[in-house]
Amino acid sequence: MGKPARERTLKDSEAMAQARNLRVSPQKLNLVAGLIRGKKVASALADLEFSKKRIAKDVRKCLESAIANAENNHNLDVDDLIVADAHVGKSMVIKRFVPRGRGRVGRILRAFSNITIVVRQVEAAASE
Questions:
Q1: In its keyword annotation, does this UniProt entry include rRNA-binding (predicted)?
Q2: Per the domain annotation, does 128 fall within a domain?
């Protein structure tokens, strides 16, 4: 009596993971996402492991989730995966106020953002 299952938006050779409401501005998160776009997942994980950015730990967790989804839900080979897409979106913004001199107020905007990582299986090139 439930709703019919929604059609899959990704191809059969792709898997996805999302991390929502990360406490970082989308601009800063996009710098880390650009670091891994188009790379093989092993290389991307290594780059995130040694990145100095604070948010790299959360992006790495999301990438590992996408890899696990590919392996367990879609039976894809982990060794042939690349990061096909890593896009960043805005989430909520918390507004805070700080007292300034002469009775004024300073506004602080604390931005949150979302990241979506899509991994794709590519066939290993025959190197003979």
A1: yes
A2: no
